[in-house]
Write a structure and sequence with these properties.
- By secondary structure, the protein is of the alpha+beta class.
- The protein contains 12 helices and 20 strands.
- It has helices at residues 14-25, 50-59, 62-67, 93-99, 108-120, 167-172, 245-250, 257-264, 305-322, 327-357, 361-372, 376-387, and strands at 7-10, 30-33, 45-48, 70-71, 74-79, 85-90, 104-107, 125-128, 133-138, 143-147, 152-155, 157-160, 178-190, 202-208, 211-218, 223-231, 238-242, 270-276, 284-285, 288-290.
- Strands 6-5-14-15-16-13-18-17 form an 8-stranded mixed beta sheet, with helices on both faces. Strands 8-2-1-12-20-19 form a 6-stranded mixed beta sheet.
- Strand 5 and strand 6 form a beta hairpin.
- Helix 1 packs parallel to helix 9 (305-322) and helix 9 (305-322) runs antiparallel to helix 10 (327-357).
- The model has no long low-confidence stretch (mean pLDDT 96).
- Bound molecules: flavin-adenine dinucleotide.
- The site of flavin-adenine dinucleotide has 32 residues, from helix 1, strand 3 and helix 9.
Amino acid sequence: MSRSLPIVIAGGGIGGLAAAVGLAQRGVRSIVLERSAVFSEIGAGIQLGPNAFHAFDYLGVGDAARKMAVYIDALRLMDAMSGEEITKIPLDDPFRARFGNPYAVVHRGDLYSVFLNAAMASDLIDLRASTEVIGYDQDGSSVTARLKSGETLTGAALVGADGLWSKIRAQMVGDTARVTGHTTYRSVIPTEQMPEDLRWNAATLWAGPKCHIVHYPLSGWKTFNLVVTYHNDAPEPVAGQPVSHEEVMLGFQHVHPRAQKIIAHGTDWKKWVLCDRDPILNWRDGRVVLLGDAAHPTLQYMAQGACMAMEDAVCLSHEVANTTGDIETAFEAYRGKRTARTARIQIQSRLVGDHIYHPASGHAALRNAMMQAMSPNDYYDSLQWLYGGSGLAEGAGAVR
Ligand SMILES: Cc1cc2nc3c(=O)[nH]c(=O)nc-3n(C[C@H](O)[C@H](O)[C@H](O)COP(=O)(O)OP(=O)(O)OC[C@H]3O[C@@H](n4cnc5c(N)ncnc54)[C@H](O)[C@@H]3O)c2cc1C
């Protein structure tokens, strides 16, 4: 599919950069327009399922990505009320053999650098910071991005990778985000400050009534990532606002002291009031298509938002390079392959929050009993649709 104009990508987050890198791998030029003054990511952790590694390889950054990851031994679920372990899903050789790749945790900045370095090294990618896109026009053979500065930029097509509050989605779809009333607080602490008996090589989640705590090691074990969430019915969206330690502790007065002790060491807390959207099918308007959080913003409860954005990049670049026909046909093929899988992540993330992370009393006891009855293979079977898939897999797997 040859074309003289580049593809314009609105948004230089993980999704937008991954798309640019994937397109460049297949010889397609792009211009990435990023609203912020610098291309960067927030300082926190991120979990990566095996499907993220399938995507890294397809996008040509597998080696660089593998170098910066911490490979954990287990996903560990704790009861925040009793302080006891509920279950542990091993991530050792049988897991890796089953899914063809490991499970890992990384610093977001490190992950972002993998894509940024690849983008900067490519002659086919033009990165432009301080460039906010506010809308688009199209004429059947090209798309013109309208910029906040009053200027315009014309490309062969436009990819809206501009996140939860996407301007491209606002014009294309016009729906509103759902403010969930769940608030997440993030902190990264030096490993020495993490209680010694909890320095596990695991992604650990403490599940409590209307709250949960997540921790895992980062950056070659120099730091620990703390992410704590509780329902406080916050009415307005917030992203990355600094808050006091007291505000964080408010949601954890009712949990076991062992769980409270983890939060006690957090510093420089920042808060996010979580939002998502209902799954939709109309991600494409002619030569304009959505990708990543702009297309399918989700709660982080399955740790898959960035993984899905990278899978989108795989699928988009694959279809642009391999679809016979024009770019609208390629974008339609991408959209068709991605909607069911990403919808499952959006819906299942809500269910995981309600039924695994946040239940109380008898509901929590039922969770514990059911999860304790599952073997590692039962867990692997239930995750096959997700970790066994990639951006090239269609559909959402069977119901389990
Ligand atoms: C607390 C928390 C924990 C998470 N943990 C995980 C995890 O463990 N694993 C996982 O896979 N995912 C996780 N996620 C989800 C993940 O962070 C997102 O899904 C992912 O960052 C989405 O990438 P994106 O590029 O689509 O969007 P974004 O990261 O939002 O990037 C959008 C980019 O576009 C820019 N932009 C916005 N508007 C415009 C505009 N109009 N013009 C130009 N540029 C614009 C922004 O500045 C930004 O750089 C988590 C999310 C949260 C909130």
